[in-house]
């Protein structure tokens, strides 16, 4: 439909093409309450760039738009991050929002539409925890470090239906409102590692069964070592989601070909049944010298999830004329 109709309609008179460029800010808010009533709260704010191309004929308009939110640090809070968790945390999020829409204008005030939306989010985590210990005379540092890294990509895509309303405020100023509903397929893929560092070479060699200094002995199995080893795994979260979409804005018509719009939109996700599949294994000293076969677990997610995206944008649109 999106590929064939523009070709057919381009032969008609008064077909039109527009290009939009813009900038703005996007805010992300996430809350999880798990089965033990522990909470995770994440929020971030991003600079965002917008690009769009639209094609229209008569009451029909086709549009492709994308919004790219820059990589920014996030705030993480909640009871899940207690004192025993990683106290040194760094995390960043970036996302892009792609939309392909068809809109039909019912009259000068009302329009309805349908579209495809794909929202992709990348979440980068790097956590550090220093632990004091006595290295039985082999480690003068008396401290080692656990480092946790996690790379997650979350994707939601599906169809959106919406209705829009335009109210003139003056000859060249118009107020707009939009409400819609989207049904999405949701998935998150994550790869993580949890490794140690900071042990002295003597302590590492001794506890990994690769030789101890005189006066010390270790009867455990021979392994690859302590430093740089620990645990690794991946996780997959799949299910479906619905979202309500709301938006308001103002359009300023400069002349027949140039307009400037100010828009604010909110997308609030409600998740259906989600299934979490996890696989993990130990490496080096932590494997106990055994060849590791990753353990796999799959179970429904019992947590309550709330996730919201909000977008504020300023866009300039230039309208070309074709088919005249």
Describe the protein's topology.
Layout: H1 4-9, E1 15-33, E2 39-57, E3 60-73, E4 75-77, E5 88-105, E6 110-132, E7 143-168, E8 173-197, H2 201-207, E9 230-253, E10 258-282, E11 295-300, E12 304-322
Antiparallel strand pairs: 1-2, 1-12, 2-3, 2-4, 3-5, 5-6, 6-7, 7-8, 8-9, 9-10, 10-11, 10-12
Characterization of this structure:
This protein is mostly beta strands and 324 residues long. It has a ten-stranded antiparallel β-barrel with strand order 1-2-3-5-6-7-8-9-10-12. A hairpin with a 2-residue loop joins β2 and β3. The longest helix has 7 residues. The chain is elongated. The protein starts with a helix and ends with a strand. The relative contact order is 0.17. The mean pLDDT is 88.
The gist of it:
The protein has 324 residues and is mainly beta. Helix content is 4%, strand content 68%.
Salient structural properties:
324 residues, mainly beta, ten-stranded antiparallel β-barrel
The pLDDT mean sits at 88
Count of individual beta strands: 12
User: What Rg is obtained from the alpha carbons, in whole angstroms?
Assistant: 27 Å
- Percentage of residues in strands: over 45%
Helix % is under 10%
* Helix/strand order, N-terminal first: HEEEEEEEEHEEEE
Distance between the termini: 23 Å
Task: Tally the helices.
Answer: 2
Largest sheet: 10 strands, antiparallel, barrel
Overall spatial form: elongated
Low-confidence stretches: none
As laid out across the biggest beta sheet, the strand order is 1-2-3-5-6-7-8-9-10-12
Tell me the structural class: mainly beta
